[in-house]
Amino acid sequence: MASSDVHVRICEQEIIKYDLEIKALVQDVNECIGPHVKLTELNAKVKAKFNNLRLRIQDLDQMGREQDKESDKLALLSEVDRHRKQMVSNQTAWRKANLASKLSLDNLEKESLLYGGDSELRHRKVTKEGLAQSSSDITESLMSISRMMSQQVTQSEETMTTLATSSQAVLETNDEFKAMTGTIQLGRKLITKYNRRELTDKLLIFLALALFLATVFYILKKRFFFFL
């Protein structure tokens, strides 16, 4: 059953592929401006695609009739009917495109016979105008690309300038931080030195006071013994 489903999907994909290819070829037939050989080649390709499409629709119809489940069978046969209607629609479009293209080619041939060189001159003029327009379009596209590239270069230059300015600011800030660090370290040394000096001064004052008191005590003691 799984293998059958795979074959059904492959068949449907090929039907869709042929349908799209036929639509594209019919459009080419409709836009064909000659010569007749070119139109004949396009019609041969369309005919071959229709034959392939018809065979694949027949294969899908056979697969649908061989389905075990009635629901699957009806679903596939419905798809077959839809594909056949689409094929008929493509055939109608092909005939219309073929007729329009043949009429256009016949008119061009009649005009060529009636006006001879004038027709060829007009054709050359149209061709030159088309080439000039194409050249103008290409030039405009190149100029547009050039403007875009110029804008990108300008933006890149502005970005580089901004990065350079930011980098300089970072360097200056780093130098300031270094200077502040040096100042802080110097202040710390001075504070440490001051604290040590203050401790030394207090110790000297204490020793001087102790010596003074000892001297006073000694004098008083000596006088006291003298009066005794």
From TrEMBL:
<keyword id="KW-0472">Membrane</keyword>
<keyword id="KW-0812">Transmembrane</keyword>
<comment type="similarity">
    <text>Belongs to the SEC20 family.</text>
</comment>
<keyword id="KW-0175">Coiled coil</keyword>
<dbReference type="InterPro" id="IPR056173">
    <property type="entry name" value="Sec20_C"/>
</dbReference>
<feature type="domain" description="Sec20 C-terminal">
    <location>
        <begin position="134"/>
        <end position="223"/>
    </location>
</feature>
<dbReference type="InterPro" id="IPR005606">
    <property type="entry name" value="Sec20"/>
</dbReference>
<dbReference type="Pfam" id="PF03908">
    <property type="entry name" value="Sec20"/>
</dbReference>
<keyword id="KW-0931">ER-Golgi transport</keyword>
<keyword id="KW-0813">Transport</keyword>
<protein>
    <submittedName>
        <fullName>Vesicle transport protein SEC20-like isoform X1</fullName>
    </submittedName>
</protein>
<dbReference type="GO" id="GO:0005789">
    <property type="term" value="C:endoplasmic reticulum membrane"/>
</dbReference>
<feature type="transmembrane region" description="Helical">
    <location>
        <begin position="203"/>
        <end position="220"/>
    </location>
</feature>
<dbReference type="GO" id="GO:0031201">
    <property type="term" value="C:SNARE complex"/>
</dbReference>
<keyword id="KW-1133">Transmembrane helix</keyword>
<dbReference type="GO" id="GO:0006890">
    <property type="term" value="P:retrograde vesicle-mediated transport, Golgi to endoplasmic reticulum"/>
</dbReference>
<keyword id="KW-0256">Endoplasmic reticulum</keyword>
<dbReference type="GO" id="GO:0005484">
    <property type="term" value="F:SNAP receptor activity"/>
</dbReference>
